[in-house]
Design a protein that fits this description.
By secondary structure, this protein is α+β, with helices and mostly antiparallel strands. The protein has one domain. It is 19% helix and 28% strand. The chain is globular and about 40 Å long.
Length: 173
């Protein structure tokens, strides 16, 4: 079992309690779409159908390339990628592997174990649903630092669309 350091977990999740700021922004947002197949592809399609039209008070935006594996809200855009890989700090095959790092934390929100990686250089966050079959990655730009987290709004859809992966055992506490 991998244990995600807890001290920053609540700080990151709580610090990002995003209160709506700004509008939905202009054009389409470039988001690299993960390649998915089989059950994960089906789970991403199901997730796409249940994603909210607004997130943290921010309107939904189109993504480019258009994909069932991506979504975006607001300006600057909060982005979502379904079928993403394990965060490199939790992947033992990555040169960035560091499950005890200071910029990594975890929290269970809405029945989903979210690993949070804080980019301390720019105060952005990347959250990943590390225990689901289809890993959902949510990038939150620094402009939202210290405001409401999008995770409580996204967790019900993520949990419903993608079941837990029995081979992944992370401790988000």
């Amino acid at each position: 079992m991998t244990r995600i350091a807890a001290p920053l977990a609540l700080t990151a999740a709580t610090a990002l309690l995003l209160t709506a700021c700004g509008g939905g922004g202009g054009g389409r947002v470039p988001v690299a779409a993960p390649t998915t197949t089989g059950a994960v592809a089906q789970q991403c399609v199901a997730l796409q159908k249940s994603l909210p039209k607004t997130l943290m008070g921010q309107g939904r935006r189109g993504t480019t390339p258009g994909s069932a594996n991506t979504a975006a809200w607001g300006d600057p855009a909060v982005t979502l990628r379904c079928g993403a890989g394990m965060p490199s700090v939790l992947d033992p095959h990555s040169r960035n592997y560091n499950p005890e790092g200071d910029n990594l934390s975890g929290a269970e929100i809405g029945g989903v174990c979210w690993a949070s990686v804080h980019n301390q250089a720019d105060n952005s966050f990347t959250f990943s649903s590390v225990d689901q079959q289809a890993i959902v990655e949510v990038f939150v730009p620094a402009a939202y630092y210290g405001k409401q987290s999008p995770l409580s709004e996204l967790a019900p859809a993520v949990a419903k669309a993608s079941p837990l992966d029995p081979d992944r055992k992370f401790s988000c506490a």
